[in-house]
Design brief:
The protein has 196 residues and is mostly helical. It has one domain. The protein contains seven helices and no strands. α1 crosses α5 and α3 crosses α5. 36% of the residues are buried.
Length: 196
């Protein structure tokens, strides 16, 4: 019988997990305070919505952008590990959840919503439903765990494959989204809109 390896970093420890849950609850409260709805305003209670060109986008538990949040987790695993290499793994996961939760609240601010509507393909974007934001946070945590399990090269391959699939599928991806938010390129927006 194998002896347990107590030297291996643990992804889940009681205190960081409890704080992750607290951060998620605080995020939900802040999203309610911002006026976000809990679920799809159109009244469809399907757990997923795959068409980014409808009002259902970002209103259900899972949509194509959930995969970009998995990529957030992979990216955060790499960057947090690089900057805080001595921090215990479970606390790095907490930091990733804190960063993602902060982004979800910021993303649903009127400033970012208007930025999306102005410079990206999300012309009809009016913010995420709370259930979608909470699922995005969990997708980020899942991406963090996936990157930990796969290590760098395999998680890099997954990152690149996911980006490629999203570009073909919805003409958008995490990298394109970042580019369009920070330094919009009109030709890229025109190409994206051609998928509609």
């Amino acid at each position: 019988m194998n002896e347990p390896n107590f030297d291996r970093p643990r992804l889940f420890e009681k205190m960081p997990v409890m704080l992750c849950l607290l951060v998620i609850v605080v995020s939900a409260v802040l999203l309610v305070w911002q006026g976000r709805v809990w679920w799809c305003q159109a009244g469809d209670y399907s757990p997923w919505a795959w068409d980014i060109w409808t009002t259902h986008n970002s209103q259900h538990i899972i949509d194509p952008y959930a995969f970009t949040h998995v990529l957030h987790g992979i990216l955060e695993f790499w960057l947090i590990g690089l900057v805080f290499s001595r921090m215990p793994l479970a606390w790095r996961l907490f930091l990733a959840v804190l960063i993602e939760s902060t982004w979800e609240v910021a993303e649903n601010s009127s400033f970012i919503i208007e930025r999306y509507r102005t410079v990206t393909l999300s012309l009809d974007y009016f913010g995420d439903a709370i259930i979608n934001s909470l699922a995005d946070i969990l997708c980020c945590a899942a991406g963090f765990a996936i990157a930990y399990k796969l290590k760098f090269w395999k998680s890099l391959a997954l990152f690149l494959a996911t980006e490629a699939i999203l570009i073909v599928w919805i003409r958008d991806s995490l990298v394109i989204n970042i580019i369009m938010l920070i330094y919009p390129i009109e030709a890229l927006k025109v190409w994206q809109m051609g998928g509609h």
